[in-house]
Specification:
Number of helices: 6
Shape: globular
Helix content: 40-55%
């Protein structure tokens, strides 16, 4: 962590690696966002659908997901994502938050 904190290039490639690499049982954030990841029956039962919300779940699901109402930091994360999409001339897509999703490692009997 100290090297990453001090080395901007290493921090960037570390973030890119995290974004692009699946870490079982989690898909990569990239695949979840662009629709390459297809939710299983268990994922659907746990409220997980492809979209930005699943990326929140992948990164910080145990803290931010499955909370109603949505936590303020999650709300602001979604609003910032929507702003970036608008500024880039694209649409944010569906399933933007994770307030009804169980975290990915959770058992949804």
């Amino acid at each position: 962590p100290d090297r990453i904190k001090k080395d901007g290039e290493l921090a960037f490639v570390s973030a890119l690696w995290f974004w692009m690499t699946p870490q079982s049982p989690k898909p990569s954030c990239h695949d979840a966002l662009v629709g390459n990841w297809k939710p299983t029956a268990k994922d659907l039962k746990c409220g997980r659908r492809a979209g930005f919300g699943v990326t929140i779940n992948i990164v910080n699901g145990g803290v931010e997901c499955n909370h109603k109402p949505m936590k303020s930091k999650t709300f602001h994360r979604v609003e910032t994502y929507k702003l970036f999409c608008k500024n880039l001339g694209t649409t944010p897509g569906a399933n933007l938050n994770c307030e009804t999703q169980q975290q990915i490692a959770a058992f949804c009997g």
